[in-house]
Amino acid sequence: MRVLCLALLLIVLAGCVSGPRIDTTHTARGQSSRVQYIILHYTSTDLPRSLRLLTEQEVSSHYLIGDAPATIYRLVDENRRAWHAGDSQWQGRTWLNGNSIGIELVNQGYRDTPEGRVWQPYSQAQIEALIVLLKDIMQRHQLAPGSIIGHSDVAPQRKVDPGPLFPWRRLAEAGLMAWPDAQAVARQQALFNPSLPTVAWFQAQLARQGYEVPSDGELTEATRNVLAAFQMKYRPARYDGEPDAETAALLQVLNSTP
């Protein structure tokens, strides 16, 4: 009898340890991926130190793409949260670690010299590997074009990565994001040249893009930083944060594109 009781007790305990028995034969129709955005970064250092920082410290990312060779490393499973975005906001959503996939590219970023800031270019192989990875992620999570954003987009007051040499247009050519039509931009720029819109107009248009931006109508440092982030993405030849006719035209065309 004692042996029988012990056996029954072990069976009960085994059931408790294994957790509840869950029936998974029914699946809800109303659901979607938790992933809404893919956020791109550069590491500001070389591959060995990038791997150490992203695996041994508090900061992390789902993927890291090396520079030579352009190896894709998966560091965090996509169904788990990686700590890559920090204090961030896009399209009214905040703290984006919980609903985004972070991709870091090995790149030194910039160095300041007496002649000015010098940025490191990305290798062609790196960008090709990134595009393949982005297409795969977007297909699996059913993300719409435009879901790919930069760290500087979601945290323009403190971040500048992936920087002005990141080839956003290459992503557009691969069908991953919208790009403003050059002829439409030229027509709009001609209309804006005689008289620029107000700062409040720029702020409203930037907010429509998804940026967190003041709405006070003042050209403050915070507004300049957001303007610079937008310019760095769509007009990297000059990203001084100054409102001008070309920036206005780019915003107008992008926000008018279906």
UniProtKB/TrEMBL annotation:
GO terms for biological process: cell wall organization; peptidoglycan catabolic process; peptidoglycan turnover. The keyword Zinc does not apply. It is an enzyme of class 3 (hydrolase). It catalyses: Hydrolyzes the link between N-acetylmuramoyl residues and L-amino acid residues in certain cell-wall glycopeptides. One of its GO terms (molecular function) is N-acetylmuramoyl-L-alanine amidase activity. InterPro entries: Amidase/PGRP_sf (IPR036505), Amidase_domain (IPR002502), NAMLAA_amidase_2 (IPR051206), Peptidoglycan-bd-like (IPR002477), PGBD-like_sf (IPR036365), PGBDSf (IPR036366). The keyword Oxidoreductase does not apply. Its EC number is 3.5.1.28. Residues 1-19 form the signal peptide. It holds the Pfam family Amidase_2. Residues 23-163 form the N-acetylmuramoyl-L-alanine amidase domain. GO terms for cellular component: outer membrane. It comes from the Bacteria. Keywords: Cell wall biogenesis/degradation, Hydrolase, Signal. Belongs to the N-acetylmuramoyl-L-alanine amidase 2 family. PANTHER family: N-ACETYLMURAMOYL-L-ALANINE AMIDASE AMID. This is N-acetylmuramoyl-L-alanine amidase. The lineage of its organism: Bacteria, Pseudomonadati, Pseudomonadota, Gammaproteobacteria, Pseudomonadales.
